[in-house]
Each structure stands twice: as structure tokens, then as C-alpha cells.
Amino acid sequence: MNMDLETAAMLRDSAARYAADNYGFLQRHAVLGEATGYSARAWRDYADLGWLALRLPEAHGGLDADPLAVGALMEVVGSRLLMEPVLASAIVGTGLLVKLGSEAQQAALFPGLADGSLRLAFADAEPGDSPCRVRGGRLSGRKISVLHGDVADHLIVSALDGAHGGRRLYLVDPAAGETEITRYRLVDGRGAANLHFAGAPAELLGADAAAVEAALAEVLDEAAAAACAEALGAVRVLVATTCDYLKIRKQFGRAIGTNQALQHRAVDMFLLQEEVAALTLAAQQALCRPAAERARVVSGAKAYICNAARHVANEAVQMHGGLGVTEELDVSHYFRRLMVNAALFGSRDEHFARFVAAGRNGVAGGMHT
Amino acid sequence: MTDPITEARQRAEGLKAAIRSFYDGVMPADLKRKSRLHQVLDKDDYVRWMRLLNDQGWAVGHWPKEYGGQAWSLLERFAFEDQLARLGCPWVIPFGVKYVGPVIYAFGSPEQKARFLPRIATTDDFWAQGYSEPGAGSDLAGLRTEAIREGGHYVVNGQKVWTTYAQWADWLFCLVKTARGEQAQKSISFLLIDMRSPGVTVKPIPTMDGYHHVNEVWLENVRVPAENLVGAEGEGWTYAKYLLKNERTAGAIVGMAWHALERLKSLAAEAAPASRDRLGTRIGELELRFMALEVASYQAVESMMRGTEHGAEASLIKLRGTELYQHIAEAAVDTLGLAGVAWDAAALHAAAPPPLGPEDAGGIIKDHLYNRAATIFGGASEIQRNIVAKGVLGL
After folding, report:
1. Is A121-207 a CATH 2.40.110.10 domain?
2. What pLDDT is attached to residue A368?
């Protein structure tokens, strides 16, 4: 796959223009009040703009976009805190279907994914040590914290294959029965669900166990890299907003940004932003490298970015004073999005452990940019 | 003769023991539960809580005996707040008993003392603090709210902000400008405003934890009887500084950090084995910082009692306490994992169980979000460091 910087830049610009016109703070405020936690109108726009076809193959009318283009879009998602299931459906769900779906499955689902009439969610995390299991085409067990699982039309569920052991993926239609959905919001307002399957009809996705594991690892790394890009978009806004505020907020007769102590802290925020940008790019590039190297770089990036984003968000709140913790200022919304982002698609500790383990196996990674 | 510090230590230990048996024997189960789960307490809960404390003689234990107090030493005051917080008790609302009460008994008229002090002790009046303004947060010299004397009244115009629980308040103690053009600190006066006065409007400021703690208070041509001025015109700054001195002994942050750390340890014990090592090291570091905070705080309090303080004690407790507390809260949210981001503000009001994790998961998240403000209010961390740099280090 060729990495195409120019296409990515064009996509970033056009997406940023759309979001600036249609997803301002007040417009987003209205979206937060929607029962689904996202805007159906914006979702249709994303389909028209081609965002939902980014990960689809060209043969199916998609753009077969590279990780840079996906990252460019996710950066805009983070910079405007878009609430729609772009990551869950158009990147993770679609990515799994592209890699593992049979011709029939792809033919059935791709058109709906491209035009936005179908939304996918990926259900992986489980509450305890009794894993989901499929026997005779029926799925039983529980999944938790399924991002946008509250609105998904189809679920991709990881579960043990009752006949052969081993982990497989399954397509489940939550409306087909025997699926109990507990819907809730995450701290940042995005929708999620806990799922209880009691013999729900489940269709195997991907025939070969080894291929499933490989594809799953690839797509989860794509998701982690996309989450990094999303964090980058949010971090850039927080750094810029904070620097603006330091220039206009006056106390003791002068702009607070004239205090050297605050200047230095702003510089540290900016340096973190630049590191987040560099690591995000490295993670995107590593998606095309061999698995061990990919794991080292992507997990290193996600772990570092979790900490960096937390620091930037904390500092942005602190330097805005009381305003920083209010609903009425966007800063607290970025704070909460970054908090959720850090926990999804692998926590800081999980990625750190994977980074260390990959290093122990002799993978350097990250140097080849 | 017994050393006063030794005696204070003994009395503080006795007080702490009394608080523990109060918690076991007297504290109502519903208040314990709400508080333990960090659920939203309403006004009735707080009033009930403050009255329970007053029944024990503790709400105003730090007041002089002639006003109904027990003349607690600084050490007893500190230990009182610390012990309550260690047990996970509700917040001791400070605006009446801790802030305005002492200003009134120190500087108020006999009429003001008779009128206000008994009702502060019993929380028959709920007080709020009108200090900050949109242009005057850390810098109170930038106050703009004006009180113009007209006959027997002051006519007050201006806007206060970050006023905690103004939505419940009967009274507002307020810093206002009573003179124009004068040196800022000589133009500020300390005025008591009845919240039911025409022209007082309270507007909520929702915070990111989804709860209504703070407000804007708009004052438009509010007529305040001149008898509600505390002390002399232009001396408000002096009284405000006296009040801040009273605020110095904030033992609650030590107890809160201890309580949160204990909860973090029990959460970690249930965490996945893979993350326990890393978590263990992180908790160990936090415990070490707690020990430093605890010993430094108690030694600082004793220095203040001996009059041997260097002046940075209060800042040290506030800075180290709030920063440590925030780091413990972050570690708790991290330990909850996916349950640490699954949360809906509405659920906290409905007292419904969280969608994921232990019963107090929502409360832990709420606490983490709201306590980002702990390093902002009551003298931001930046201001605390300025105080030490200028006042102690002479920089």
C-alpha cells in the first residue's frame, strides 16, 4: 500500500471545512441531546462525502484509503468531537468485514455501509472470565462497553467456537432475537451498550482461525492508530485554545500569559502536541509493517499519547480556571473525550505492556519514518 | 504545666475517637451510603448533616466558648476535618460555620452577632460566598460590584461567579466596592445580602460532572440595609484576609486523600492480575506522597500553634493535598478500566447502579471530573506558588 500524503491532506481540508460549517459547538450541543447520542443528518452527510466508504475496496465503489487518509479524517473527528460512529462502524467494523467477510457477506453489507443505512459495532470486551461461546450457530454470553452498540444494526462479536475451541468472529443481528441490550452513554456523551446473548443467531465471519487472529490484530492496531489521530485533533484544539486564553485573560493588570511559569507550561503542552503528531504518523506508517514491529510502534504510540493527552487536557482545564470545568466551555468536552479515548481500544497500561513485550522480542521499531 | 501542644494532641485524639463512634452509632445509614458512593446530596441532606454535627457540638467547635463553640485548637480543627473525611463523610459546608461566622464574631456588631451566629450554628440560615467575579478570580483587587450608599441602604449592582450552592442560600456574604477611584484594597467592604432581596438572580453554571454546584449571582439595584455592613467601610479586604487565615486549616484534603487511597487499594485488589504489578508500584508511590503530606500537614499545624511557621504551610497543604488527590482519582479511574468511562450524569441523580463496575464507579468518575477544580478554587495552585515565592522566598 502506498502512503499518499496528498490525498490525506485533501481529505483533511475538506473534512475540516465540513465540520467547521456543520459541527460547531452549539450544533454539537444539540447533537448531545439526541436520544442516539449522534446526528442522523451528519451521518448521511458523511456518506455523501465518501467518509463511510474510505475503508471499502474500490471494486465495491470504495476508496480503499490508506492509513494516512483514515488518520486525516480521524484527526478532524477529534478536532470537532464528532459523535457519530465513524471509528466503530466505518473503520473497525468495516475493516473486519473487508478482511474476513465472504463474498456473500460483503455483497450484503457493503452497500449499506457505504450509504450509511447500516451501522456496525465491534463487541470484544467481556465482564468476567466466562467467555462468549457459539454452539450450533447460537451465541451465548456477555459483552461490555460496546462503542455505539446502542445503535448498531449489525454486531461483530468475538467468541469461542464451541466445536473447535479457539476464538472466532461472528456477525450478529441484534434485532434477530435473544440479544438483550443495555444502552448507556459514556463520559463524553457517545453511546455504548452492554450485550447479553442468550442463544442469538450468529454467522461465522472468516473461515480460518489463524486468518481471523491476524486480521483482528491488524484491525485493532488500525483502531488504536485511529484513536491516536483522534486524540491529536483534540490536543491541537486544546493547545491552541489555551494559548489564546493566556493572551486574553487578564489578572493583576496584565495578560496571564505574560507569566513565565505559564509560558513554560504552554510550551510543554505544545511539545507534547508535536510528539503526539509524530507518534501518530509513525503508528499510521507502521500499520503496513510486519506484525511484531507494528505492535511495538502502535502500542508505544497509544501508550505515550494516553499520558500526553491527559497532561494536555489537565493543563488546559487548569489554565482556563473555573471556566475549564464548565459545560459551557468546549475545554471540558475535549477533556472528557480524551478520557474516554484513553480507555478504548486498549488502555495505557495494556499498550505499554505490549510495547515492552515487543521490545523484549528484539523489535526496535519507530525509527524508520 | 502541660505543654499546650501535648494537650492539644490528646484532645485531638479524643475528638477523633468520638467522631469514629459517632459514625458507627449515630450517623444515619442513608447519609453514609450516599456519601460513600459519592452520590448527589441535596440541600435537605446537607442541612441534616450540619445539624447532626451541631448536635455533637462540632459544627462550631472551633468558635470561642462565648459564641457557643468549644474553642478548639488549630490541631483539633484540623483533626476534626481529617477524621470526618477519612470516614468518607459528607462535606462540612464551610460558608457559614467556617467562613462568615468567625468574621461576624470578630468584626460584627452586637446586633449582627445576636442575629446571625445562632442561626449559622444550627444551619437555619444557609450561607454562600460572594467573592469571585468574571474579571476578578485570583485577583480580588479587580472587583467591580458596587455598593452605593443611599440613606439607610446600600444599592448593590454587579455580578458574582462560582458561587457554590447559591441556589440554596438564604444569605450571601459579599465583597463589594463602596468607593470609587480609591486604592483597590481600601475601597472594598464586607456586606451581608439577603438572597430573597428583589434584584438577586441566581443562574446555574453546569460543570462537567453534570451536577449543579456553582452559580452566577446577579445583583441588580439590590437594596441592602446599611446595618448589614460588617465592621467599617473600606475594611473588607482586612476581613477577607482574616477569613482566608481561618480557611488555612483545611484538614479535609488529608482525610479525602486517605479515603480515596484506601478505595484505590481495594479496587486494585480486584484488578486483573496482569496489571497488578504496575498498579502496585503506582499505589506505593501515591502512599509515599500521602505520608509526606500527612506528616508535613500535622507538623505545619503545630508550627502555626507555636507561632514558628514560615508562612508556606497553608500553601503546602493545599498544593500537595489537591495535587495528590487528583492523582489518586486518576489512578482510580484508570483502575476501573472501561467502567471508568461508562457513566451518565443522570444516573448519579437517580441513584441507579452504574452500567459497569462496582456500585461507586459513577461516583468515582464524578469525583475525578469535579476535582479538577480543586487546584483552581480557594486560591489556585498558581496563586499558592506565587504566595510562597513572594512571601516566603522573597523572590
Report:
1. yes
2. 46
